[in-house]
Target: TIGR01244 family phosphatase
Amino acid sequence: MTVEFKRLDDKLTVSGQLSATDVAALAEQGVKVLICNRPDGEGNDQCSFTEIQTEAEKHGMQCHYLPVVSGRVEDGDAEAFGKVLDETTEPVHAYCRSGMRSTTLWALSQGDKQPLSEIVSAARKAGYDMSGVAARIAGQAEGGRDLASYDVVIVGAGAAGIATAASLKKRNHAMSIAIIDPADVHYYQPGWTMVGGGIFRPEQTARTMASLIPQGVDWIKAAVAAFDPDRDTVILEGCRLIRYQRLVVAPGLKLNWDGIEGLVDTLGQNGVTSNYRYDLAPYTWELVQNLKSGRALFTQPPMPIKCAGAPQKAMYLSGDYWRQQGRIDDIDIEFYNAGAVLFGVKEYVPALMKYVERYQAALNFNHKLTKIDGPRKVATFEATDGEGNSHTVEREFDMIHVVPPQTAPDFIRSSPLADDAGWVDVDQTTLRHKKYDNIWSLGDAMNAPNAKTAAAARMQAPIVANNILYDMGKGRGVAHYNGYGSCPLTVERGKIVLAEFGYGGKLLPSFPTWLLDGTKPSWMAWFLKEKMLPPIYWKGMLKGKEWMAQPVIDDQ
Model:
């Protein structure tokens, strides 16, 4: 049976034990150097190094015997391995029993040559967990000394991370807490839709990070490279180690702008914009104001994404402006959704459809944006029919609002904390990690099947804070998350359909229907979005004030 060759970088592949047939296959792929990291006689079924070398030499390959006992990779072994790599520009293949020792040697040899996060990510893609090796590299750089140790370490200083720190401090001021985040600026991202609609100014949605870190919480201004949960350690870029008693993972998600061919090259020009970026939302409003006639496209990528209603919010606010300006009959509005429905909770669809009709918008489901040619102003979609057959659709545009595909951050996807899809694997009610009992996650990076919104994080933060303290023996019970999320759908300037729902699409309204019926457009919901939610965010949620977000606790 032929062994699987796994690529670590442009030069090196690794695998388990080779046979003569495998050597021939490697030669066909252009490999010129072989490294054997498995001692002879380790297994009854393995070919000896001499047998492999004899076959390799028939194909003009150089061979190196660098045997390492399983579990005993020494620094000198890694140095020798790295020397072989450095001395050749030709393709190299290394093997052992499973490829793990060879990958470990490579990772250790690259510790001072490339970022730890890239080392861990490349190994993870090949099927090898190098988080413990990353901690070893970091420990060597630090002289074996940990940088610091905390009761609670929080990765991410977005809405979820800061709110959790504030809720923890509110409950127990004495505990030591650190937040890890390299950003200088914190953004109120729900406000960017309003910037793109000409309602908010961009600067209203930004604050300095230093002004928002809760008092008594240390801010470690650095990027995370990897996690070593077996040793309760976070490894930072630059080879620093942070130890924790309990860990909260809340780094948000990654906007994969490169996931659409040509998008990066044309963003912010040629009529291509997105409210998913602070610097581009003003361009959305500029395009909306300047478009007098033509075709405006609005796209939505496959789920999950941050705020699933945001792609169509941009369409509604744009359509409302064009209608008010008397241009609606001269502008063709088209919505392209990679999914199969307008909105995932059916109770809100009738109200939304009335606005789709008002703005004469054409709905195109199962259409995924794959490419943009900015200079030609052409968007390419992959359309899928009911039988799963796909074909390509091209549409010219005068303006296009793009929402990029979204994933968990790379350092999460390559970590032992992730599920098969790359998101942090948690219990959906307690938000505790399924494998590591002293780790919790909330916000956009975890895998609970809730809407990824700031409103969800507002509910989750007090729950995580409560459950951490209970785990420390300082609380009275476990709190449970019901999947609450909120999406204020801005259907026109002055009215909002306030979608509030939990797991399974269950409606979870915050107000009685006689006061505010979320399934219908409401001026009160608009007032809440425009006037109330920003100060609730800045002065409430990020300060540990849990207005309408008190966790429900199961007393033990």
